[in-house]
Amino acid sequence: MIKHYLKSTILTLSLAVTAGSVIAQSPGTHGIEANFGLREYIGDMGSSLMFASKPIYQGGGLAFTYYINPSIDAVANLSFGEIGFTQNISNFAVEKDIIWRSFRAQTGDFTLGARYKLNNNIILSEESKFAPYIYGGVGAYSVNSTIKWGPHPYTAATRIDPVYQSEHLVQNTINDIGMSLQGGLGFKVFITQALAIQWSYTLTYTFNDRWDGANDPNPNPSIDKPLVHKLYRSNDAWGYHALGFAFALGESSGPAKLKDKDEDGVPDKYDKCKNTLPKHRKFVDNVGCPVDTDGDGLLDGDDECIDKKGSLAFNGCPDTDNDSIPDRIDACPTAKGSKTMNGCPDSDNDGVADKEDRCPASAGLVALKGCPDKDGDGVSDLDDKCIAKPGSIDHQGCPDTDGDGVFDNSDRCPDKPGSIASKGCPEIKADVVNKIALAAKGINFETSKATIIATSFKNLDQLADILNEFPEAQAEIQGHTDNVGDAVKNKTLSQERANAVKEYLQGKGIALNRLTAVGYGSEMPIAENNTPAGKAKNRRVDFKLNY
Description:
It contains seven helices and twelve strands. By secondary structure, it is α+β, with helices and mostly antiparallel strands. Among the domains are: about 1-250, Porin; about 430-545, CATH 3.30.1330.60. Strands 1-3-4-5-6-7-8-9 form an eight-stranded antiparallel barrel. Strand 4 and strand 5 (about 100-115) form a beta hairpin. The protein is elongated and about 160 Å long.
């Protein structure tokens, strides 16, 4: 038995090695696979498909692969191992007449076929680490099978009468070689570019019904009927669950690739320009020829602006503004400029390009981003609040002319020492405030009218004099009434009286922009409105001086 098994195994292994040698001499990428696993019987006696029943026997295998294209690999497949099965085929009234039959066979098969790979850049990427496939092929098989037929060896009768069992046991050996079909599926998981773990399942269909002994047309033959060795009904098969390793050989590694002489990414089989220069290899079409993407007459490998149509003078780059500086290094590609300005214009010729010049129409200093500084205080005229007077950078280019601690840009009286509280102007003393209040009390109007009584002119002249003493100060003229009558009318009357005072002072030479007139009506009383004296106090004009 062992002799026959070794003989068939050596025969199929020799065929596989021969085929592998032929493949190894072919150009392109190829590989070798080794596996081990479990074999299962599928035939007339029954089925242990997918480990549905025992026994299950061990096996091993080798395969040689050759890359044809991204979807197809040619495969030479070799497997060997044992299969077998046990079956009770009859149970008559007498227990000892239970018929038992079994077989155990050493098998080997060699198949030439092809795999359809799903990592073919259609379903999965060719570079995918997970590489499933479907397999089919045709080949030959060899079987050395030992078949036993007779009373069940474990019934009560045979244990009592072993002689009966041995006398009626039939044993036969069948050697069989024939044609087979093989199909299956599997997948690889790449650990490195050259090494992968592989799982597969193959089914070998043997085109005959001899080697398992279950080929009699009567499903319940008698014990005394000998085994027959002939074809009948359905044929038998075996399956093989395998786990193993795949090794990539040849000129490439990892997921199979064809030979690529010029290393441009297009296999020589499909490459119409097999000697592409190194500088052009990254820029080829799907048949391996150098391309000119932007159609400017310069191949991409020589073109410094691949996606923009340009001129040969600028290595394929455009010069949109025609300033002889290509757009790729032109800081202002749409505005004609000079090389010293990196392609940008400098309209005022101050050495600062217009795109960075804060004052592009006025020649200025580079340090001040192209703006002039007339007073030379380090603050550009654009930011200088005191253009004609050198001042402090911290105070927007203004000095403190009068030395009062308030810089001229904030000083309402830049030439007169004052206080911070008075915005740099002389303080309005308390006696001046009192003098203003006293003069304001003497301003009177005709009843229910905005006509100033003549006796009030003297007081108004005094207020004009005070405003002239403080020319930088501003005055708010406030009109007030008591609460007698309609509030809206009172407010209107108070506004008209304030306006009358404003017009009088303006006539005395006080600038209009220094005067503000506001009528408050009865909103701001200074006394109770329930007595004649209180009402009289509330009918007034107030005069507020401030900076």
